[in-house]
Amino acid sequence: MKVLYIDIETGGHHQTYLKALMDISGKENVLVLPEKIEGLNAKQYVFRKTDFFNKKLLEYYKWTKEVKGIIKTEKPNVVHFLYGDVFYKYFGLGLEGLKKKYKVINTIHALKKGKIGIVSLKRVMHLSSIGVVHTDAIFNEVKDAGIENVVHIEYPHFSTGYDIDKVGARKYYSLSENAFVLGCIGGTRFDKGLDILLKALQGVTGDFELLIAGAEDAIKREKIEELARPYRNRVKLYLDFLTDEEFEMAIQAVDAIVLPYRKTFNGASGPLGEGVAKGKMIIAANHGSLGDIVEKNHLGYTFESENIEVLKKVLNMAVQRTNYTYDEKANAYKNKLSINEFKKQYCKLYF
Fold first, then answer.
1. How far is the C-alpha of 234 from the C-alpha of 201, rounded, in Å?
2. What letter does residue 44 receive in the DSSP assignment?
3. In order of start, what are the domains of the chain with their CATH numbers?
4. What is the pTM of this model?
5. GO molecular-function annotation terms (predicted)?
6. For residues 349 and 237, is the Cβ–Cβ distance under 8 A?
7. pLDDT tens-digit profile of 173-220?
């Protein structure tokens, strides 16, 4: 059994996701990536890195042609596109003919809104053997659209077991021992709404601190510092790529994970899963999968997406909950996020 994995990034959770799948026994792994990952016991092909979401048709076509050439050379049993969202823009162009020779798995992380997004996804799934989504909300919407060859595998937590207590984690990020710490963890992409949170915090009272930890992206340091000026002494800013250990320490250090994502985001959230694994309060925008997961599983609080005033009220309430604990429903969801269950479900698809 040979599985050929294709991904368009190696940063953030892309690498931990890939490593978890590679750990499924009984198969040979071949990787097609934009850069080599050191220390992996697998054959790796590297393609020319490009801006996948702003790329022109010719660049996209060259990439699909290069990937199909590698597939033809390797002759795998399974071709697994780990970020099938890349096919939305050109309606799956380049996937033609693959599933006649190989089992083609496409993992879709977010659902594009509107009729065009669904039409594109229908074609992508028509050209795939099976699709994978990570949330109930997306699964139900896809099925309602008439797409049958899709399964739901819950996005797991990828905690490495790095053992550090809350006190030690707070020392690492220079946070106070007794303050209520809000965490915005991960890259500062525009759709993740960090600026919405920073504006809302201008009207929050109480003993709080904010940890922003992750790679600098669309929302730059200058903008963050400008919006956080009224409470700048309460902000700990760590704009850098996080190692697995630093990511786990960031999650451990906070009392609440805040997910102020814009309405354009409709997928699974890595920080949500990692926060749940450590029993953290989750504060999330109420649209799409995020709101559905938090509300159904009693994980914390939701607020009207992109509404700064409502988020302000929720934050003022949350920072007073110093004794927050999970109920039975939340703990049941926490148990579902096992990495072993994730691998078990994918194993069924491969074999």
1. 11
2. E
3. 2-152 (3.40.50.2000), 166-326 (3.40.50.2000)
4. 0.79
5. glycosyltransferase activity
6. no
7. 999 999 999 999 999 999 999 999 999 999 999 999 999 999 999 999
